[in-house]
């Protein structure tokens, strides 16, 4: 059991470090190049970083001796953290969607697709490696927090793949003499990615909220049974 707890904390710490690297790289390069989709990718990593820190704190508290003295509420922590994660990611996707639509209406954005493609490849490889490690090693911990964490990285991997595909399309359009359409590739990728990936955090929230309701009902039944025993 102690090995499982130690592995859970190590994986969450590794995820935190990875999210920090990709967040700084994505946001810095996104601002410098004026690319909404790279900025979106970096912002997602930044949100993931804060959410991973919350997961790490939750894992530490759940395994602490203090938590053992409060068994009635301990089962609420994991689903509450996962529900909050889903809400935060949904909020970020919504804000990114609005920004991208405004950019399209303003005439699109011109981006250096060559440099953007290099970033996309590096980002995709890094995200896939982090997801693979969390999914493979995390299965040994049987932790809902690690499972939610691996889903975050899977989303980030698919976003990175979509970014790469979008910049390849933009490069082909420019090469074919259709540069006036290529400027819409960057914000369109954000629109598609943010709209599609809102579904994943919404499902996370749905499952976590269902679990919260179940735990609340179980706690209420336990309290009622204790009162009945005292009354009897």
UniProtKB/TrEMBL annotation:
Topological category with respect to the lipid bilayer: Multi-pass membrane protein
UniProt keyword list: Membrane, Transmembrane, Transmembrane helix
Signal peptide (UniProt feature, chain positions): none
Transmembrane segments: 12-37, 43-62, 82-108, 114-134, 154-175, 181-202
Coiled coil region boundaries: none
Primary site of residence: membrane
Any Pfam family the entry gives: Cation_efflux
Calcium as UniProt keyword: no
InterPro entries in the cross-refs: Cation_efflux_TM (IPR058533), Cation_efflux_TMD_sf (IPR027469)
Keyword Transmembrane applies: yes
Cellular location(s): Membrane
Every Cation efflux protein transmembrane domain range: 13-212
Protein name as it appears in the record: Cation transporter
Organism the protein comes from: Pseudoalteromonas qingdaonensis
């Amino acid at each position: 059991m102690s090995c499982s707890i130690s592995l859970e904390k190590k994986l969450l710490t590794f995820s935190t470090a990875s999210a920090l690297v990709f967040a700084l790289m994505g946001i810095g390069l996104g601002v410098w190049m004026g690319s909404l989709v790279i900025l979106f990718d970096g912002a997602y990593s930044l949100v993931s970083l804060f959410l991973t820190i919350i997961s790490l704190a939750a894992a530490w508290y759940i395994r602490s001796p203090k938590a053992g003295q409060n068994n009635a509420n301990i089962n609420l922590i994991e689903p509450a953290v996962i529900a909050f994660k889903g809400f935060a990611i949904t909020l970020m996707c919504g804000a990114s969607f609005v920004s991208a639509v405004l950019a399209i209406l303003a005439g699109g954005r011109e981006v250096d697709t060559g440099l953007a493609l290099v970033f996309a490849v590096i980002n995709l490889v890094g995200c896939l490696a982090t997801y693979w490690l969390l999914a493979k090693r995390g299965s040994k911990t049987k932790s809902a927090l690690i499972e939610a964490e691996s889903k975050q990285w899977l989303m980030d991997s698919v976003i990175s793949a979509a970014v790469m595909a979008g910049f390849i399309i933009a490069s082909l359009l420019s090469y074919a003499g259709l540069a006036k359409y290529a400027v819409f590739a960057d914000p369109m990728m954000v629109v598609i990615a943010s709209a599609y990936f809102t579904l994943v955090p919404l499902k996370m929230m749905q499952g976590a909220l269902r679990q919260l309701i179940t735990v609340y009902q179980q706690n209420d039944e336990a309290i009622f049974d204790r009162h009945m025993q005292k009354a009897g």
